[in-house]
Design brief:
The complex is a heterodimer of chains A (120) and B (110). Chain A has one helix at residues 100-103, and strands at residues 4-8, 11-12, 18-24, 32-39, 46-52, 57-59, 67-71, 77-82, 91-99, 109-110, 114-118. Chain A is mainly β and 120 residues long. In chain A, the strands form two sheets. In chain A, strands 2, 4, 5, 6, 9, 10 and 11 form a seven-stranded mixed beta sheet that branches. The radius of gyration of chain B is 13 Å and the shape is globular. In chain B, 37% of the residues are buried. The chains are: A mainly beta (120), B mainly beta (110). At the A-B interface, strand 5 of A face strand 7 and strand 8 of B.
Chain lengths: 120, 110
């Protein structure tokens, strides 16, 4: 069954803000970490950042100045905001979940992906 | 250096054993565990191996992982046509303070 379902706008203009949300339908667990990961066409996966059950965040330094990851009050939805987008931000964006205790920093549950294109 | 290096492509015949390698440095593979993902085109990555050698439930035992120093390997034995896809290594990088991924290896089953 689907455990992570994501959604958000797929077409943006340069300088706009990318906003994606992911709902976790799985069992609640305080040890979970949720991440956003992207993959430009034909390129490697790039970790964007993470948030944990305590809402502590950690971001990729290369994106830190433009990224915000938040979690809602129910701790079942988490969101990615990436501002001032350019064509270089065109990619498939995934939400993913892991558990440091059981999996170290691996991700065993992934969302279906959202293709985001930035074009004027 | 926060980079993981994989050979871009690899091929093998059905039934053969192939090994996909992943090379890093002391700040990543050298001090953290390695994970392997399989990614079918158009789909999200799927976790094959975590923590160097551990197979999640449902992953066939044809897949195995190992790590030595600053390198890691994914071995696939009894190669099947369904194994023809891309494989990525990943680990934590202490310099980046985050997860990094290899460039991926596209496996072709001849």
């Amino acid at each position: 069954q689907v455990q992570l379902q994501q959604w958000g706008a797929g077409l943006l203009k340069p300088s706009e803000t990318l906003s994606l949300t992911c709902t976790d339908y799985g069992t609640s667990y305080s040890g979970f970490y949720w991440s956003w990961i992207r993959q430009p066409p034909g390129k490697r996966l790039e970790w964007i950042g993470e948030i944990n059950h305590d809402r502590s965040t950690n971001y990729n330094p290369s994106l830190k100045s433009r990224v915000t990851i938040t979690m809602d009050a129910s701790k079942t939805q988490f969101s990615l905001n990436l501002n001032s987008v350019t064509a270089a931000d065109t990619a498939m964006y995934y939400c993913a979940r892991g558990s440091r205790l059981e999996l170290d920093d691996a991700f065993n549950v992934w969302g279906q992906g959202t293709m985001v294109s930035v074009s004027s | 250096q926060s980079v993981l290096t994989q050979s871009p492509s690899l091929s093998g015949a059905p039934g053969q054993r192939v090994t996909i390698s992943c090379s890093g440095s002391s700040s990543n593979i050298g001090s953290n565990t390695v994970h392997w993902y399989q990614q079918v085109p158009g789909s999200a990555p799927n976790l094959l191996i975590h923590s160097n050698t551990q197979r999640p439930s449902g992953v066939p035992d044809r897949f195995s992982g190992s790590k030595s120093g600053t390198s890691a390997s994914l071995a696939i034995s009894g190669l099947q046509s369904e194994d023809e896809t891309s494989y990525y290594c990943a680990t934590w990088d202490d310099s980046l303070n985050g997860v990094i991924f290899g460039g991926g290896t596209k496996l072709t089953v001849l």
